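Quick log. Single chain, no ligands specified.
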Amino acid sequence: MPIRCLCLDVDGVLTSGRLWVDDAGRPLRAFHVQDGLAIRWFQRLGGECVIITGKESNGVAARARELDIRHVRQGVEDKRAVMDEVLESLKIPREQVAAIGDDLPDLPMLRNCGFPIAVANASAPVRAAARYVTRKRGGGGAVREAIELLLSREGRWNEVIAHYERQAGSGGMGE
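-> predicted structure:
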């Protein structure tokens, strides 16, 4: 069954989980550009991405806007309830959902989706709940790795590669 929706935690998944705090007391996060490219392609190929995070951040909202992620829920305590609410609005069954997490608050999402994924540096209970554990750490391309896996299972990652191959043209070295 194809995965039509990807639910993402932020801190520890889209970021390394480390928070830098500026002199004004604002937390700063770094996002991985390869994750962003893969998210765009997942959506371009018909998938929905949903961000569900326990913290509130203008930076997360800005990154979501940049990536055209329409479903962003911040300040969430019950991630499963919010995931269920979003999936109901999208009319997507849980079996067609993958969720990526790294720590205990993500367990309710992981245990109630069709394809639970943990990042390499996830806590032991999260890794145990996952069907797939990435080789890459959160914030270090783990989301890209997961999306490549999901799209490859459906034979769709080749569409992404073919897009860039067409842009490269046929005038390679040695011809």
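DSSP finds seven helices and eight strands in the chain.
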